[in-house]
């Protein structure tokens, strides 16, 4: 594992919001991988994975989203993304951050999105399909979606109606116990008897305990944040939105077979079908038996790390194949 520490860097978005992002830079990088983290977590949790990538000359960056991690803490809005339009603001933040980092580097780009970050990565690729290649000096070469899911647009619209009712009931800047229950409340059901309320994340108890103990993890999103997220999900899941994705994009879906977010990986199979129907022929999926939601933090994470780099090496970035090291 690399002994390179990450560098904490500030970034000011278009509306003057102060974002916090991290950079793990090897001595001679040949590829840039940008991580979009999941809901109610933060980018420093990807330190172990990033260090592994550094040993294969892959530079890694990751930013804490609005309402999350150090960005949320610094803005005094932990778990509250924005008073309105928060989803699109997070997408635009990522676009501006990519342009900022790209201006300082000349490397091919791969985006990895986990859970909510996988949806953000998908939406960003839809919204900035042309810009990703025309405006970035480092054209987007591939996308990795981890712990993702797919449900049709109508499903998300129904959920957003419930969120709007809850927003009216509790106020936009406050969390809703009902929204937390219908979103996360059933995730542990398949793993009873459970040790904690977060057992669904990973089979590794140390990972689960660290998540629970982390003050920047696990908090409930505000009702407005849920509204914006669900509206965003209904938009990106539309057939016409999926059709906006670059048909030449290389996409790899990584998932745990027992991940409740994807309904025990059924949502991953559905997502693969939707992407293929959208005309993207270069779609691959890897589903790990018995693994749960956070495959990069699972008991078999060393296998997952190696599989990610093996796939990237197969795309011809000049990365050494870990199976031949």
Describe the structure.
With 325 residues, this protein is α/β, with parallel strands linked by helices. The chain has twelve helices and eight strands. It has helices spanning 47-54, 69-74, 86-102, 116-127, 129-134, 153-170, 177-184, 205-213, 223-236, 239-242, 266-277, 301-314; strands at 7-12, 18-24, 31-36, 58-64, 109-114, 140-146, 250-256, 283-288. It has an eight-stranded mixed β-sheet, with helices on both faces. The radius of gyration is 18 Å and the shape is globular. The model has no long low-confidence stretch (mean pLDDT 93).
Strand order of the largest sheet: 1-2-4-3-5-6-7-8
Mean model confidence by pLDDT: 93
Q: What gap, in angstroms, lies between the N and C termini? A: 13 Å
CATH top level of the domain at 7-149 and 239-315 is: Alpha Beta
CATH topology of the domain at 7-149 and 239-315: Rossmann fold
Strand content: 15-25%
Helix- and strand-based class? alpha/beta
CATH architecture of the domain at 7-149 and 239-315: 3-Layer(aba) Sandwich
Please name the fourth-level CATH homologous superfamily of the domain at 7-149 and 239-315.
Alpha/Beta hydrolase fold, catalytic domain
- Level of helix content? 25-40%
Count of extended strands: 8
The best one-word shape is globular
């Amino acid at each position: 594992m690399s002994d390179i520490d990450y560098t904490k860097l500030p970034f000011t978005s278009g509306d003057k919001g102060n974002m916090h992002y991290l950079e793990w830079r090897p001595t001679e990088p040949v590829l840039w991988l940008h991580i979009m983290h999941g809901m109610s977590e933060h980018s420093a949790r990807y330190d172990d994975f990033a260090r592994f990538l550094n040993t294969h000359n892959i530079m890694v960056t990751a930013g804490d989203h609005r309402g999350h991690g150090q960005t949320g803490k610094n803005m005094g809005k932990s778990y509250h993304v924005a008073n309105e339009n928060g989803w699109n603001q997070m997408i635009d933040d990522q676009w501006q951050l990519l342009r900022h980092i790209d201006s300082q580097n000349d490397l091919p780009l791969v985006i990895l999105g986990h859970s909510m970050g996988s949806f953000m990565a998908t939406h960003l690729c839809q919204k900035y399909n042309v810009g990703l290649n025309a405006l970035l000096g480092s054209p987007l070469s591939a996308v990795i979606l981890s712990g993702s899911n797919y449900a049709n647009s109508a499903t998300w619209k129904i959920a957003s109606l419930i969120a709007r009712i809850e927003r009216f009931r509790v106020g936009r800047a406050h969390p809703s116990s009902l929204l937390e229950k219908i979103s996360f409340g059933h995730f542990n059901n398949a793993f009873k008897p459970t040790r904690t309320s977060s057992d669904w994340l990973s089979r590794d108890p140390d990972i689960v305990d660290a998540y629970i103990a982390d003050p920047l993890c696990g908090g409930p999103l505000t009702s407005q944040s849920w509204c914006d997220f669900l509206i965003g999900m209904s938009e990106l899941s539309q057939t016409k939105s999926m059709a906006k994705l670059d048909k030449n994009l290389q996409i790899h879906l990584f998932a745990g077979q027992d991940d409740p977010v994807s309904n025990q990986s059924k949502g991953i199979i559905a997502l693969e079908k939707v992407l293929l129907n959208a005309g993207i022929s270069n779609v691959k999926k890897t589903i790990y038996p018995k693994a749960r939601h956070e495959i990069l933090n699972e008991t078999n994470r060393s296998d997952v790390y190696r599989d990610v780099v093996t796939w990237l090496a197969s795309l011809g970035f000049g990365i050494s194949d870990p199976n031949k090291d």
